[in-house]
Amino acid sequence: MSKTEERDLGEAGAQLSTAPVEERHRESAGGPTLGVIGWLRWFWRQLTSMRVALILLFLLSLGSIPGSLIPQNSVDPMKVEAFKKQHDVLTPVYEKLQLFDVYSSVWFSAIYILLFISLIGCIVPRSWQFVGQLRSRPPRAPKRLTRLPAHTTWRTEREPEQVREAALAMLKKRRFRAHTAGDAVAAEKGYLREAGNLVFHVSLIVILVAFAMGVLFKSEGGKLVVEGDGFSNTLTQYDDFKSGSLFSPDELVPFSFTLDSFTGTYEKNGPQRGTPRTFEAAVTWSKGDGPEKKSVIEVNKPLNVDGTKIYLLEHGYAPVVTIRDGRGKVVISEPVPLLPIDANVSSTGAIKVMDGYRDKNGKKDQLGIAAFFVPTYGGENSGQMFSQFPGLEYPALSLGVYHGSLGVDSGLPQNVYQLDTSKMEQFKDADGNRLTKRLLPGETMKLPDGAGSITFENEVKEWASFQISQQPGNGWALTGAVAAITGLVGSLFIQRRRVWVRAVRGADGVTVVEMAGLGRAESAKVPEELADLAATLHAQAPTASEPVEVPAEGSEK
């Protein structure tokens, strides 16, 4: 509908939407300046316009791309350090642009806050306008209904009041908001379109708030637990932990759990040999001093304890190793978790003996053992060691033993699964070669010069790594996303339209019925719906029969 037609229709063609009306009177080039208040008002109008809100939303989407492609300090600081070492040229640029901390950067926060303000400034006036439209009645019919794109007319012998009463009852039955205004019935339908539009934008605000809550109050940590061991939800128990800037340790939900067993089964035959079939951890858990409960945690099926979710991430093996010193004293006898490096769970790691070890002369020393484990040993006659299958069918453990300083006294943090041999010396065999040995369960490796022994016990335990996550905004984000989709569907597929029915007595005394429909945009649905309404009303007010003219007596035939 053109601007001219909209003006001709007057109130009837206005307010089919709650979209803000653009300013029609602009200052001419030679007119007076806006002044400070004028410029502030102009800036506010631009900021709260839907066009700017969409631009900010697009910029927010673009800004999140580097957060997905570039390692983030909030996710994995180790990857960030590795990236910096590999890219000497890009690192200073990325640091100045805060690309290693995208979601807490100044520019991302500015876009986020501006979008938040823009949406609120856009929604509030539209909501009040929409409430006003709901409280008001549909506008009176235009003077000339025949000027509307969809219209029809006929003559009937029914009285005008009867036609209007029938039209009013029919439109209300079709769920139109209708009332009689003068010589016509005015009706309107499709308010859910604007309601859906507002719900969509309110949902965006809910999602933004949920995102802010998740960033500020979240906590997330990882823990590797061997069968038989447990975990208590305190900061000291985590292997790694990160949280939002407003998170407090007091907000950690008090619970604990024990890994009773891990069950992993794999396809043994066919092209999918080695594919996991069962992957679950049986745990016993309790909240605070409450009773113990049994649960099974599976991939994508976390355990939920008062909003804190415990996800099962990875699985591996922990061969039980016993280490004796030069005097035969047991220094360590425990399962040693090793990290998998391939699909067949070939695993590597380090065993560090920092205290309690003495050589045969009673001198204190430290041991560092590089370990390589395979659950199903292959390559026995080829001089290589690899795993043929992820299941525990033929385990083997290869060890390389060092002694000296592990470097833990320097105060610098170390990776427990990596061995720093810069200040250590590897044991040598009788031929002067570096001492390494492959062990099967129950076998023992003797260290030279009576330095002790290492035994691979007849037991291999399994471990599982868990992610303990507390995201306070997840429920709000999901609710907002569902509401946004629902509102968007309503705003796209529901059409706001108006219908008028005028019934007046003609000059010849016969009632003239006029019907017209108007939608916000040109659509075939309005003429179709109007035709259906006209057919229904026509059945109650049929077309009047034309009078038959009788020729006068004596006239020529």
**What's the number of helices?**
10
Q: What is the percent of helical residues?
A: 25-40%
Distance between the termini: 53 Å
Indicate the structural class: alpha+beta
Total count of strands: 24
The quaternary structure here is: single chain
| Biggest beta-sheet profile | 7 strands, antiparallel
The average pLDDT score comes to: 87
**Spans where pLDDT lies below 50 across 5 or more residues:** 22-31
Q: Which geometry do the CA atoms define?
A: elongated
Strand content: 25-35%
Alpha-carbon Rg, integer: 39 Å
Overview of this structure, please?
It comes from Streptomyces peucetius. It is a multi-pass membrane protein. This is Cytochrome c biogenesis protein ResB. InterPro entries: Cyt_c_bgen_Ccs1/CcsB/ResB, ResB-like_domain. Keywords: Cytochrome c-type biogenesis, Membrane, Transmembrane, Transmembrane helix. The structure is a single chain. This protein is α+β, with helices and mostly antiparallel strands and 557 residues long. A hairpin with a 2-residue loop joins strand 10 and strand 11. Helix content is 29%, strand content 30%. The protein starts with a helix and ends in a 17-residue tail after the last helix. Helix 8 runs antiparallel to helix 9. It is built from ten helices and 24 strands. The relative contact order is 0.14. The longest helix is centred in the N-terminal third of the chain and has 30 residues. The strands form five sheets. Strands 4, 6, 10, 11, 12, 21 and 22 form a seven-stranded antiparallel beta sheet that branches. About 2% of the residues have low confidence.
